[in-house]
Q: What sequence folds into this?
């Protein structure tokens, strides 16, 4: 008997090794705790930061970003719906790089006064770039063998007993 939901198997399946858990741990922990900090320190890391960066409706987008980082970070940590959780985090990191870090190149970054040029850009972008690469990696390979996704995929591949 074939899988009733082939999309589920494709979404959850992974051939990545168990060692992928290290990428999940790094990416998930950083997103999870950065999301929490957007609420703990709203003036410097949440709404205030979004306002200073020139993001419209910072009172909406700051907390929304925090919620996404907490939820997606937790999902990535658990290895549950990892590919789905990676997508908004990729968008998040692209936005962070384009809005807050790219202006460093020409010395017009509201969050990084006094910084300009390639070396300042690459230095201040290192965490965003690592998070982006880790999220893209997880989107491509999945959560790895030690994950809820892998367990669910194995269960979905078995024929149902009646």
A:
């Amino acid at each position: 008997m074939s899988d009733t939901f082939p999309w589920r198997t494709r979404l959850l399946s992974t051939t990545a090794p168990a060692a992928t858990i290290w990428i999940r741990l790094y990416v998930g922990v950083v997103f999870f705790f950065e999301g929490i900090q957007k609420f703990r320190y709203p003036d410097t890391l949440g709404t205030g930061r979004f306002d200073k960066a020139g993001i419209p409706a910072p009172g909406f987008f700051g907390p929304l970003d925090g919620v996404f980082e907490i939820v997606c970070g937790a999902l990535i940590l658990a290895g549950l719906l990892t590919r789905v959780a990676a997508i908004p985090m990729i968008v998040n990191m692209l936005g962070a790089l384009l809005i807050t870090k790219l202006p460093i190149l020409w010395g017009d970054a509201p969050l990084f006064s006094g910084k300009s040029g390639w070396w300042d850009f690459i230095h201040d972008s290192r965490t965003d770039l690592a998070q982006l690469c880790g999220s893209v990696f997880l989107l491509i390979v999945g959560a790895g063998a030690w994950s809820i996704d892998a367990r669910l995929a194995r269960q979905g591949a078995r024929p149902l007993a009646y």
Notes: The mean pLDDT is 91.
